[in-house]
Specification:
The protein has a single domain, classed as Metallo-dependent phosphatases (Purple Acid Phosphatase, chain A, domain 2, 4-Layer Sandwich). The protein is globular, with a radius of gyration of 19 Å. It is of the alpha/beta class and 319 residues long. The chain is built from 7 helices and 15 strands.
Length: 319
Amino acid sequence: MNRRHFLHRGGTFALGVTAGLITPAAAATPINPARKRVLRAAHLTDVHVNHENGSADGMAAAIRHAQAQRDRPELFLFGGDCIFDSLATAKPRVIEQWDIWQRVLAAELKTPARACLGNHDVFGWNNRKDAAVKRDAAYGKALALDKLGLAARHYAFDQAGWHFVVLDSMEFTHAINQGYLARLDDEQFEWLAGDLAAVPATTPICVLSHIPILSAAAFLFAENSTTGTWQVPGFLMHVDAKRIKDLFAQHANVKVCLSGHLHMVDDVTYNGVRYLCNGAVSGNWWKPGKWQDFDRAYAVIDFYDDGSVENAIEFYTTT
């Protein structure tokens, strides 16, 4: 397979912003020569597997590509939008998409994996006016949790000296056609605050969410020039980013946040936290060509004992 990648290190990235309480000198701090890598992970987000466009073969190719790395990842992080759509699709077709997802994983995945929910994994929110859909036990997030083998929509785990927090980015709302807003509901936010408070200050923390908490690419996702004002819809980036970043500011060991959703790549550092949006396995939703500037991709992330990370975007081919 043809391969090319961007290596995200320090201030070098595909689309990057360094912002917040960071001086130019701090942004250019040399890499710690004594640090030791403790974990290599593959971050595969927005697979959008379905019955069309060779997506099952593409999903398999991405997994094989990651597992064929000479320095192979020890953990897979699936970043949501596993299937093409469950929001507005009839249940039998949704089940078929999940069957494809599970079949490809069973055939290809040889690496331990964790996952978070994506908006397209949620069943029926776009059909919420249909009383039969709302009565179905699978309505909302229940079906995706079952298919992904998740006991809860948000959770945490520890590995290789790091603490990982997995969030649910989607809060139900009647106000938006999609049925969701990118926001942590109050119950989840309280859980997050308690979880972070319980982690020793010496343990670095990585946060995984489907929708970016903070992103530069979100401003470029849609056309803004016709309004004369930058506008980011509430389903593209967390509307509660200020509340979340204020919480992170109380915990200096929160080091990196991983996301997808936008099918774009960016690297934003704000107040000491790196926010990495790592493209999409499906690229342009499995259609030919790029979405904006980015082709089909996943990320390989190296986690170090000093709380630093290196993020490499891997563009892969399906042939």
